[in-house]
Amino acid sequence: MSEAIKHECGIVLLRLLKPLDYYIDKYGSPLWGLNKLYLLMQKQHNRGQDGAGIAAVTFNQKEGLRYINRQRSNSSTPIRDCFTPVYDQLQNIADTRPELLKDIPWLKENIPFVSELFLGHLRYGTYGNNDISSVHPFIINNTWMSRSIVVAGNFNLTNSDELFTDLVALGQHPIETGDTITLLETIANHVNKANDELYKEYKAQSLPKFDISRKIQKEIDIQKILHGASQKWDGGYVFCGMLGHGDAFALRDPAGIRPAFYFQNDEVIVLASERPAIQTAFDLNANDINELPPGHALIIKRNGNVSIKVCKTPTEPKQCTFERIYFSRGTDEDIYKERKRLGAALMPYVLQSINNDLKHTIFSYIPNTALVAFNGLIEALRDHCNVIKKKRLLEEKDHLSPEMIDDILSFMPRFDQIA
User: Whole-prediction pTM value?
Assistant: First the structure.
């Protein structure tokens, strides 16, 4: 295994489903999508403080202009450093030529990240170097848009060495051995294969090359690409990607080890590692948000069509223990309830460790993320003490005095913040 098993990250995939003019008219900003990306990443800041990266695909760019933009940082304030350059440029325009803030063609040509499709990543570097080259997203650029690919993920593979060997056997010469580069090159190989097959098909129909390129962008089969690329992947992963022409995807491992949640309305489709981030960013209830099923891919075509497709056969669920006990925010409804149950389940072991001596024991917790489980333990201990108090009251009912009642009722666990 090339990475420590505890390696976790945070991801956001966001696609606007309306023209950018719509967001200016309704929300007053050409950066509504980027602003949502920023909020979603801030609300998942717990998932990574060692680095952050964002990438965007801009639709309908003229030839000669960049259509994929990327910003990465491994500073002590990585999220801010990714977004500040864009916001500073917009503020300068607002101060000098505010009329341009409604000129979408000009903004697309001159300001990066005035875009329709976004990918964000938060890095939790628990292994290796923390240099900028380790920060997602990763890009393979190509002058054919349907061959350009941007990827980022929350994953850990158990067989990256095998996948690397497979790439070498194809005749490739990968320049790195890490999981991310291996997955990127594996997907890129299948993207190129799909492009080649479609090109041959349309060339045999004597279509002009320009028309072939546009037709490939419409017809390329993302589900087929992901199914082929992921056949040997073994481990936990949620892997997101964008093709240069505007298709996008998120693929979850068949055991559901790594989390992924998504929401869609008529304005946006968004996927993130944690449900509360989406709830907060879009003011939603928990039941408004869906969990991406294990082994499935969320596929967003350039034309706005969204589908959930099976790419790998789902297996027995094996959600990451570290994720649910510690890593995710406790504001998620399911995570909160599970942590409380885990805390309550500790009660008999805690009582055993103190020989049931509640009178001389003070309970506390550490770290702060243990609070929810601690509350579960508190409730279980109180219930346990109530059972004992009830039993004593019934046993002494015939000769209870006010002092005895006070003594019995005072029997309860003591809690304090002393750690």
Answer: 0.87
